[in-house]
Amino acid sequence: xxxxxxxxxxxxxxxxxxxxxxxxxxxxxxxxxxxxxxxxxxxxxxxxxxxxxxxxxxxxxxxxxxxxxxxxxxxxxxxxxxxxxxxxxxxxxxxxxxxxxxxxxxxxxxxxxxxxxxxxxxxxxxxxxxxxxxxxxxxxxxxxxxxxxxxxxxxxxxxxxxxxxxxxxxxxxxxxxxxxxxxxxxxxxxxxxxxxxxxxxxxxxxxxxxxxxxxxxxxxxxxxxxxxxxxxxxxxxxxxxxxxxxxxxxxxxxxxxxxxxxxxxxxxxxxxxxxxxxxxxxxxxxxxxxxxxxxxxxxxxxxxxxxxxxxxxxxxxxxxxxxxxxxxxxxxxxxxxxxxxxxxxxxxxxxxxxxxxxxxxxxxxxxxxxxxxxxxxxxxxxxxxxxxxxxxxxxxxxxxxxxxxxxxxxxxxxxxxxxxxxxxxxxxxxxxxxxxxxxxxxxxxxxxxxxxxxxxxxxxxxxxxxxxxxxxxxxxxxxxxxxxxxxxxxxxxxxxxxxxxxxxxxxxxxxxxxxxxxxxxxxxxxxxxxxxxxxxxxxxxxxxxxxxxxxxxxxxxxxxxxxxxxxxxxxxxxxxxxxxxxxxxxxxxxxxxxxxxxxxxxxxxxxxxxxxxxxxxxxxxxxxxxxxxxxxxxxxxxxxxxxxxxxxxxxxxxxxxxxxxxxxxxxxxxxxxxxxxxxxxxxxxxxxxxxxxxxxxxxxxxxxxxxxxxxxxxxxxxxxxxxxxxxxxxxxxxxxxxxxxxxxxxxxxxxxxxxxxxxxxxxxxxxxxxxxxxxxxxxxxxxxxxxxxxxxxxxxxxxxxxxxxxxxxxxxxxxxxxxxxxxxxxxxxxxxxxxxxxxxxxxxxxxxxxxxxxxxxxxxxxxxxxxxxxxxxxxxxxxxxxxxxxxxxxxxxxxxxxxxxxxxxxxxxxxxxxxxxxxxxxxxxxxxxxxxxxxxxxxxxxxxxxxxxxxxxxxxxxxxxxxxxxxxxxxxxxxxxxxxxxxxxxxxxxxxxxxxxxxxxxxxxxxxxxxxxxxxxxxxxxxxxxxxxxxxxxxxxxxxxxxxxxxxxxxxxxxxxxxxxxxxxxxxxxxxxxxxxxxxxxxxxxxxxxxxxxxxxxxxxxxxxxxxxxxxxxxxxxxxxxxxxxxxxxxxxxxxxxxxxxxxxxxxxxxxxxxxxxxxxxxxxxxxxxxxxxxxxxxxxxxxxxxxxxxxxxxxxxxxxxxxxxxxxxxxxxxxxxxxxxxxxxxxxxxxxxxxxxxxxxxxxxxxxxxxxxxxxxxxxxxxxxxxxxxxxxxxxxxxxxxxxxxxxxxxxxxxxxxxxx
Length: 1302
Prior knowledge:
This is ZZ-type domain-containing protein. With 1302 residues, the chain is an alpha+beta fold. The termini are far apart.
């Protein structure tokens, strides 16, 4: 291609050069120059840290100035780019992506200054596009044959990718807990620098694309570009230095506190990460956000998936998060893409519509504040009242009422006057004046208003003023500004008049809240019914959701709604008033659901909530949002009838509810602050605001009719639980219906169903040559935070080992079969262990690094995650500093592998799925400060190796700080060897005896494997039950299992040492199988303090007036008839107790109490009738009378104790013996397939029962017995002795009869 330029082009370039020489930089350019020069000076300093230099201080000052004006400047920039996009449509997609990314940050509740600094580099890059305004023709080819449009189109793809990348980096960083952000600041600084450098490169590229076309008529643009390029070049070259300053000098107060704490410790961050005590201090010092670590009652929350406030992090959790690579964190944030797309769609749909309500011409310079009012009616009211920029909310409401009422009357009166005067032959000039008056009145009214809107005036009254004030006064300041007034009128539906809109807020909004109240109660009722039919494997998942604090919060929130009974008679399908508002309500709900689907129902933070529900006060969207989320939960529970749910399926809903509660808490705190400033009683004001729904946001709910209302009754008042059909899309197709939406995660298969028949290797096969690894190995691994053998023995068989060092192996441990691929380099062995069976739907892999002993009979080393670059450290290789740190170290981080995951852990901030996976999958997590217990293998190897080799090979000393999980040990012996080997103590005390015992044990195990005996089966059964019980106890306890005493630890270690890995895997699958079926109630026993409990026993007498703190017992305390005291309540065994084996919504507790009273009265009447009949029949000699019958054993019940079933359709009772037997057998733990207890016509274990205490309990506790005299007590004892004598006499007669027959 020719490089020759025309004379015209050369003249154009010369003009550009002349203009550059005379160019005066703007204020913005000077500011950028200052930043660039300051960074340059800072980077050139070699005597001080870049972040601490004087030049860095200047950089910081300039950047902070930009940060403080970020919101205002970015909005201006977005508006400019919008206009630019209209002129040059080819950049519109990049502008939309940029606006979506920027809006995500602007709508975030709290923003980190470092994130804003990164966004400034993005804005700086987009600013360059403004120069397109000065381009004459973007389509005209340049010297190279490409136009500016062609060049920029090629570049826009990578720019869009960088913007999306920046938004994801910012979103992921903001979600990290404060402590994690501090300890990983170096990693994130590198990532921020990388993104900022991309923007600097894009900016330079855009400048180049524009400058190359200087010869086609863009002289002015070229001048500006050259000036900007010259001034900001140094900054582009020093992005890393800029970010270093930002990360060092723009820390949050919490991060500065952490920095001061770490600075006190020798060794810095690495030393702190190794020290448990210091990390616990770090977590303790962190200020957990209000409502993050505790619920509204002060009860500690469980961390839900995606939520990692510092207060709920453990030391192990903190290390996990610190160890994660930034790319892994970004990959885990899978839901971000959906959120970003939803924001982009919302940005694209935003259109500012200015309503020109009349032909009036407003002089914006000389006119008053009322000229800024958009709505016609509001404009005239504001003008006539002479208000300035704001007005008292009450005054505005009353003025509107007078305006509409008087306006209609004035128009009618004027018409009557003109008509009468026309008849009387009035002067035409006067008639014309009257006509102008009528026209003026007509112009003052809303064009959407109609005579039919007169109905709305009845609702604009003083009695209904509060909801309208709340709608107008968004910031609860008691004053309405012009902006608030315009926002209020702009939000009304297009075809509604202002009176119609006002009537909605004064009357229709309360109707809407009451309608949603009943719909939510209906969904609650449907979930309760659907729960009964769920597969047994889904019982725990659903039970945990129902008993979670998120659901309890919904119930407390709804309990504050006032005047519920007044709306019970409303026909929601045909009520005339409600029909006037229902279309708008339904459309609003449809929009929210559409947006929720866009983010997959996952509200991860406040800006996502604003995407879904819009900005503004939560009162506008909280009720429909709660309803939609619960309806989604209903869909999931219904799917649980046919598929096995992922453990995190309902956790998405829980986390979305958590984000919603945060918005409510913030709103209520604002109201409380206003009430305090105005010296108002906060509790009383909350009862008035939002119809009382905020009454119990921070207060314990009071006993009210809400808790006594049966949700099933409320459910019958509305009909539309199925989702409202979505509106058709632009191409005529409807969106997916609720039933067409997939679950959040793929249905899983239970571990026990994945077990295959084990293939046993022959342990007697000859060993290969010693220096090859092929053969049978066995050993164990250890955890970071536990002593002993971790999860038990490990079998390991190497089947392939070539001359290049590659190995292939397989084996089994407690988590199932696995395969191994690795390499041996001299004595260093590295391999990846991959489990063949997924664990809760996840593929799990670990990396092992070890050292092979000189005799090739032993391997020792460490294991850890595959996605972290940790290093094996052995004696003699680490530095003195590292060794000293090792000696002082506590735990080092443990990280669960997340290869192929669909979700991250609850401590991460990506998707909401892995809280239950972490606790249930139980992949190994170990500590490095623990020396591996070699059991007796060291001594045994010394005893049996012919060459007398000892364990003097290279030994493992520790790990690189913060990156490994623990140690492992393998010996060239089959697993039966370790299972039969006596303890080290036995070898030390008497080695020959220990060797003889080893031989006997091995022979015995071989014989037992070939034969069956009842004794062997019984012993294995006890082992299995003990293993499953301990494992279930570990999994039920929240957090790491560190509270065990020495005896429990020894019991666990001793148990797993003698169990084959195949058995361990099977028994672990059985434990997991039972865990999914056993509903654990998130309740504390009020008698002994046990937590959690199963089943749940709730005392009716002590919980009669309780809405929140019911009086509950565990099975041990109930069975022991324990008396308990809490506050001023004293529980007695004489009280009636309700037994729950399934999780129940709290709103059902008191309705169950009512049913229980009816059942107890029925049973008591039946027994009294039986006694009366018995007396009559005894007198006439008929003994066929019968009382109650146990529905299980069919035995007659003639007196208490017994249970009355509250679930069976027919009235029925159960004897204590049958219920105790059912509790012992726990048949629900072994249910499979579709055998859900969904039949209420026949009694089963899942039914709720109420107790009628027996006479032995009553007589032991009643005051009458305590008041008995000695004579009365003696008489009762004598009566009992007489009864015993009669029984003995009958037994004697029976024996005599038997002897006589023989």
